[in-house]
Amino acid sequence: MAKSYVHEARRRVGPKRQRIRPVIERLAAEHQDAAIALKFRSELELLVSVMLSAQTTDVNVNRVTEHLFQKYHRPEDYLAVPQEELERDIYATGFFRQKAKSLRGTMRMLLEEFDGEVPTRLEELIRLPGVARKTANVVSAELGEPQGIVVDTHVRRLSQRLRFTRQEDPVKIERDLVRLVPRADWGRFPHLMIWHGRRVCDARRPRCEDCVVNDLCPSSRV
Ligand code: SF4
């Protein structure tokens, strides 16, 4: 019974290759303000903000970086203070010891290997201490050179509900998405999923009746 219902839902909406473009277009029209919520003015500030955003909210990071970025401008500045001082300055983002260690390691490598500049290539970004694939994907996308698709909790949930993937593991989900999403949309796709996830397709109570892609979604309840 459940199986035939799923089958029927898939038949109703059509194959994902036909749905992906209209889904992106409609969500882009609906969430025109969908963009990264972190506040930054330079590539270095972007990298620091994304590194600090692990396990906390963007609002919280912005609150901390508002002061942090008045004090730390260049990679050298993060190395000029004792580690404990940097820990205090980022304390409110949580996991402050590990984050301070990663920040200092990253700044050291930026100076030693990248002339103090933030690299844009994913392979280079993931070499920086404490920079995982998700962080690297966010940074390279914001720098205008997305080389993958950011998969966070919203991207994962919505991609599964829209049946763009059946995978659970973020790396496998990303692999499915890069095959499906047009390359020109790799940067904005996660933002659209994130904002739609926050505003409409809630984890517990999706508001399918108000969803602009409900006729394209096999999980729609309307
Ligand atoms: S129809 Fe419902 S489940 Fe599908 S994307 Fe919209 S809100 Fe989410």
Shape: elongated
* N-to-C span: 19 Å
How are helices and strands ordered from N to C? HHHHHHHHHHHH
Residues in β-strands, percent: under 5%
Structural Rg: 19 Å
User: Please, what is the average pLDDT?
Assistant: 95
Number of helices: 12
Main β-sheet description: none
Bound molecules: iron/sulfur cluster
Total beta strand runs:
0
Helix content: 55-70%
Q: Uncertain segments of ≥5 residues (pLDDT<50)?
A: none
Sheet/helix structural class: mainly alpha
Describe the structure concisely.
This protein is an all-alpha fold. The chain has helices spanning 2-13, 16-30, 43-52, 58-71, 75-80, 83-90, 96-113, 122-125, 133-142, 153-161, 170-180, 188-199. α6 packs across α7 (96-113) and α10 crosses α12.
Please tell me about this protein's structure.
The chain has helices at 2-13, 16-30, 43-52, 58-71, 75-80, 83-90, 96-113, 122-125, 133-142, 153-161, 170-180, 188-199. It is mainly alpha-helical. The protein binds iron/sulfur cluster (SF4). Iron/sulfur cluster (SF4) binds at residues 158, 161-162, 200-201, 206-208, 211, 213-214, 217, 219-220. The site of iron/sulfur cluster has 14 residues, from helix 10.
What's the arrangement of secondary structure elements?
Elements (H helix, E strand, L loop, with lengths): L1 H12 L2 H15 L12 H10 L5 H14 L3 H6 L2 H8 L5 H18 L8 H4 L7 H10 L10 H9 L8 H11 L7 H12 L23
Helix pairs in contact: 3-9, 6-7, 10-12
Bound molecules: iron/sulfur cluster.
Iron/sulfur cluster binds next to α10.
